[in-house]
Structure formats: C-alpha cells, structure tokens
Structure to design on (338 residues):
C-alpha cells in the first residue's frame, strides 16, 4: 500500500514534467515540418522558374513567406521559452526580408527568452536590411548581452551595414569591433569589405579601376571608358 | 533585367555611354546567355563564380549590383534599376552635354 502510494505521488509529480517534455518535442517536430514544407515549396518553385521562358516569369506565383512566418510565431507562442520557439522565431527573422510584419513580435519574444541563444547570429543579417528603431535596439542588446563572440560579431556586422550611409561614424565603430574584437574569420573579412566600400565605393568617390578580361579573353579596363557615362552591372544568368 | 538593359543600350547608341557587365557565371553559361538574350554589351568575366576578384574588390554580395558613374569616373548612383537607372543615366548625360 505504502509503495503504491509513493508510486502514485511520483507519477503525479512526473506527469506535468512529462507533459511539458512531450509538448516541447511536438513543438520541435512542428518546427521541423514547417521549415521542411517551406524548403520543398521553394525547390519546386525554382524548378518551375527554370522551365518558364523569361517573358512569362512575371506571372509565376512566388512561395509566400508570410503564411509560414505567421505559423512560426504561433508555434513559438505555445511555449516561448523552449529551444524550438527560439528556432521558429529566428526563422521568422531570417525570412523577414519578404515579410517584415512579424519582426516586432519575434524580436520581443527573443529579447525576453533567448537573448543568450547561440543561434541568434543567423537572424542578424536580415535585420541589416531594415533600418528600424526596433532592429537597431535589438542588435545593440545582442552585442551587450549575448555571450557568444560569433553572435556578437554577426550583430555588429549587421549594425555596421545598416548604418553605413546614415551614420558612418557609428557604422565604423561596429565594423572595427568585428575586425578587432569578436568576429569569426569570415565575419572579419566581410567587415573589412564593408569598410573598404564605405571609404572607396561611396557615392561621390572616384571608382577604383577594374582590370580584367572579357569572355573572349580580351583585356579591358574601366578607365578606358573615361569621358563616358558608365553603368556597371554585376550580373549572373541565374 | 535583360529587356530593360537591351532597350537602354539601343536608345543610347552613339551617345557617350557604356553599359559594362561583371559576370559571375561559368564561361560556357555566360556565352550561352549572351547569345540567347542578345547581350551586345561587354562584360568582364569574373572567374566563373561569385567569389571573383572584381566582385570581391567591390564588396559585392548581392546580384545584380549596379553602379552608375559619371564621365569623370565618379560614383553617382548605386543600385538604381529600370526607370530609375534610365533617369540617372539621362541626368548624367545631360550634365556632360551642358559642361561642353
């Protein structure tokens, strides 16, 4: 009797923990499914796009990020402290270039529950494309509170890119921090590239010369075209 | 993008204007594209991938990236597309005309 009683108590105690665990694993599974669905839709679209003649491409329907972002936020809200919630919120920010509407919600939840998360760097790059007060504050909070160097590096790089034309002094401070303090090797390289662009490729600067060969192996230089208005188009047939 | 650029180049034939490409495709692909899309303007071939020395030197991380230079080689506009590109080029050509 005593044994059974203890067992019942143990079971009662374990139940909520078990329930929480299974909620979290279903949340993680849901996240996996949702991101896999999106990637599948993307791949299918890419195939269709390749097959469609250029003139008709404008009529193609692109995969809609918005629906997925909203689902990711809803998923995170079920248990915002879980690792899967962090993944879902970071996903929403990574795709916020096409749907910025969920940005503020994702940022608020990440700030509250996941500011030390080691994957937060993945969300930073996209934030650079939208110079909003929320994004700036979030990136600054990451630099202040996240303990991982590569995450701080990603946030500083994003702030540097975001502020390059509006506030070059502030931008340089962040880019120098990446180069001198916490950037990974590739982050340092990108920060150096940004600094070079700010110093040499800004509007009003004389463009550095380009020397190279055309597709037929003939050499030519940008400076050959002085005296003409020139459009330089970095392109690829993709 | 090709149709717009084709018409820009055609419209400005004989003017002091040049459209120059920096291409990041493998060689056979760019040759094919130039033929198929009737690309008459010149491109530097940047090594066959997005890590080429010109794209690196110009810190290009997104394609297409556009720079518009005046006749003195000064960068005047960045990433202007379609009508915006036309306007930028027309303005700089007018400036050049008036300076003569």
């Amino acid at each position: 009797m005593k044994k059974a009683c203890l067992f019942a108590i143990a079971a009662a105690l374990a139940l909520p923990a078990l329930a929480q665990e299974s909620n979290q694993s279903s949340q993680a599974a849901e996240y996996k499914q949702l991101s896999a669905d999106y990637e599948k839709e993307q791949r299918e679209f890419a195939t269709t796009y390749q097959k469609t003649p250029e003139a008709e491409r404008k009529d193609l329907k692109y995969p809609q990020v918005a629906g997925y972002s909203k689902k990711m936020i809803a998923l995170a809200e079920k248990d915002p402290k879980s690792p899967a919630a962090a993944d879902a919120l970071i996903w929403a920010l990574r795709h916020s270039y096409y749907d910025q509407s969920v940005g503020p919600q994702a940022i608020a939840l990440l700030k509250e529950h996941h500011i030390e998360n080691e994957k937060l760097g993945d969300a930073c790059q996209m934030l650079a494309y939208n110079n909003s007060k929320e994004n700036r504050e979030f990136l600054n909070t990451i630099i202040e509170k996240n303990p991982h160097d590569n995450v701080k590096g990603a946030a500083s790089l994003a702030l540097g890119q975001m502020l390059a034309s509006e506030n070059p002094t502030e931008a340089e401070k962040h880019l120098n921090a990446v180069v001198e303090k916490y950037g990974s090797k590739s982050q340092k390289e990108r920060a150096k590239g940004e600094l070079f662009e700010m110093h040499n490729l800004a509007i009003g600067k004389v463009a550095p010369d380009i020397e190279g060969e055309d597709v037929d192996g003939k050499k030519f230089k940008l400076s050959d075209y002085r005296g003409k208005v020139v459009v330089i188009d970095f392109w690829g047939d993709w | 993008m090709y149709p717009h650029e084709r018409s820009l180049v055609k419209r400005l034939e004989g003017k002091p204007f040049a459209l120059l490409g920096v291409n990041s495709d493998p060689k056979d692909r760019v040759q094919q594209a130039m033929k198929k899309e009737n690309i008459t303007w010149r491109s530097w071939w940047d090594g066959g991938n997005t890590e080429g020395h010109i794209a690196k030197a110009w810190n290009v991380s997104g394609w297409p990236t556009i720079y518009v230079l005046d006749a003195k080689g000064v960068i005047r506009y960045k990433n202007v597309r379609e009508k915006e590109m036309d306007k930028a080029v027309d303005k700089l050509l007018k400036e050049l005309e008036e300076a003569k």
About this structure: Residues 2-51 of chain A form the longest helix (50 residues). Chain A has two domains: 23-54+63-114, 116-205.
